[in-house]
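Researcher: Quick sanity check before group meeting.
Model: Go ahead. Protein one:
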Amino acid sequence: MMSNNAIGASSSPSQMKQHMGLKASRTVANTLIYVLLIVISIVWLIPFIFILLQSFRVESTHQVGYVIPQQWGLDNYYNLFKTDFPKWYLNTFIAALFTCVFQTIIVLCMSYTLSRFRFKMRKILMRFMLILGMFPGMLSMIILYRVLKDLGLTQAHAVPGLILVYVASSGMGYYVSKGFFDTIPKSLDEAARVDGATRAQVLYKIILPLSKPIVIYTVLTAFMAPWGDYVFAQYISNNTSAGKNVAVGLYGWIKTQDQTAKYYTQFCAGGVLVAIPVTILFMCLQKYYVEGVTGGAVKG
């Protein structure tokens, strides 16, 4: 066998020059990509940094023309707990938690059913749900409000109504999870069925342990959607403080110029507290989130 030195010596000067040119162009391209990503990250982080700094400003409560506070303190965070913010935060957490649990169960069961079972009207059902999901939810807001009002699930009792609406259409979000389940060999199901396992046991003991990325992806998406919802939550709570979530409650502090002058720094502090749990959760599970998205996009 020829040594590497011998191979390198046998290369012509033109080949070496071409190789060095490709390496240099690749280095330049990677450098430009990294610079672009750094610039995008800085632009994306500027609003969050601004809100964080303003939440520690205590010399005034209204909007000012500078970013770095002249006086630092935790007064805005202390004052949050003298308002209805803890109630709004609890409402949001309850809605997000229950929606996360029920929606994850429904989505995974629906995805497994459509991936593994073959029955009449299956493809038509899948297409119908996909097309129906393309219509904006705002088209049904009026009738949903009337139904929830008749059930007593609006205003002060808006949280159960929100959970009911969030969970009701969960099955239509099957497509990403189904695509991931399609990548798991069906021979595993057949082997487990031969050993006497039921369909439920196959799902919970075999499929789900192999589908950790898509399970975590489903949990994250199911939790984050109600956590940041504003439009429907505002509509259902109907400006009743006991039924508001944090998005609706915080926006109420900056509706008018007078309210902004009084609550602006508290609004920033509330925004920081709302963002912390989701940020930590997403950063810890980001690896599985990306794997779930890419894995579920392989097959439809």
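Researcher: Fine. The other one?
Model: Protein two, sequence then structure:
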Amino acid sequence: MKKVAVVYWSGTGNTEEMAKAVLEGAQEGGADAKLLRSSEFNGSMTEEFDAIAFGCPSMGVEVLEEDEFEPMFSACEKKLSGKDIALFGSYGWGDGEWMRNWEERCKEDGAVLVCESVICNEAPDEEGTDNCRALGASLAQ
């Protein structure tokens, strides 16, 4: 059984809703999955999990949340090489540039993106929720 962390930051609740769907998908896929806010996770914890889903909305000029999530994620980066990960998040403007930049950053870190990232405009609709569950299930495999 794979051990999966679902680590997220949410300001409005949209990304939190996505994180809960990712958790459900991972658990339904047979993983021992744990939901953690970014304030509850740190770089040393990456080794405790076989796979990690990271979730963060687009902020400002399409960047990761800068005060809490970005410092946590930066601390994890040096331990992502060869690690199975997946990315998700919500946005309210723009075209998803923050996610493309984040994916590229993870690839440069040597992380293994196990599936296509999931982005939702504002709150996830039924399709977005289903995609989040599928993302979680991908991490459980």
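Researcher: One line on it for the slide.
Model: The mean pLDDT is 97.
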